[in-house]
Write a structure and sequence with these properties.
alpha/beta, Rossmann fold, five-stranded parallel beta sheet, 8 helices, 21% strand, globular
């Protein structure tokens, strides 16, 4: 792989001038190709007309909030690019809203720029590796790690993104076995810290997506044990 091919195209959406300048300086080496937006509408235009590897998105923006930008890029533009939300809001309800709207990661201000870089690199690796992965199948349902699409045998399809996609991938890989809470957490977040409430929030958001798309949640909670994929009823063994 050449150095050019390995570069990360990064969209930074931040209206605070000093922080935007700090981000620009920190990510100024040849590893990164940077675009900037200081408001939500500009960000959506750039996302609709360019291909990015990772989007770093401030929540408190003039006009459209980062939450609304995230919702629109997932539902309207159908963009699956990984999104890191950055915000001073650190309540669980705020994080739940962000993850439900399709964010992949959530970084609370103030933060260390090196931590942001590590998260950008991790999301880029996952996306690049998933594009080469084989189709994963269970009775009546399949998941393509490259396109992040779930397909059922009746022809219905749903595109996941971010953490929801990683959870679904982990569960379909484990099928017909279940994954304990700890196993699922480790497979989705690796060595990074994530508590059980965060895991439950993500599983809830994924269930809602599957319910809206297929009228099935496809995820069974084994109380006190973990989660298991439940294929479409007619195809389940």
């Amino acid at each position: 792989m050449t150095a050019f091919q390995d570069r990360i195209r990064l969209l930074l959406v931040e209206d605070h001038v000093a922080l935007a300048q700090n981000l620009s300086e920190y990510f100024s080496d040849q590893r990164y190709v940077l675009d900037f937006a200081s408001d939500g509408l500009t960000a959506l235009h750039l996302i609709a007309t360019n291909d990015y590897d990772v989007i770093v998105l401030d929540v408190m923006l003039p006009g459209l909030s980062g939450f609304e930008v995230c919702r629109r890029l997932r539902s309207d533009i159908q963009c699956g690019t990984p999104v890191i939300l950055m915000t001073a809001k650190d309540q669980l309800d705020d994080k739940e809203q962000g993850f439900t709207l399709g964010a992949d990661d959530y970084l609370v201000k103030p933060f260390n720029l090196r931590e942001l870089q590590l998260r950008v690199e991790a999301l880029h690796r996952r996306r690049a590796g998933g594009a080469k992965a084989a189709l994963l199948q269970a009775p009546g349902v399949s998941f393509d790690p490259g396109t992040l699409q779930v397909h059922t045998d009746n022809g219905a399809a749903l595109e996941l993104s971010g953490t929801a996609a990683r959870i679904f991938e982990a569960l379909i890989r484990a099928y017909p076995d279940f994954l304990s809470y700890e196993q699922l957490r480790d497979r989705v977040w690796g060595e990074r810290e994530a508590d059980m409430n965060t895991l439950r929030t993500h599983v809830y958001a994924l269930r809602k997506q599957l319910q809206d798309g297929f009228h099935l949640s496809m995820i069974k909670t084994l109380h006190g044990r973990g989660y298991r994929l439940i294929p479409p009823p007619k195809a389940a063994p």
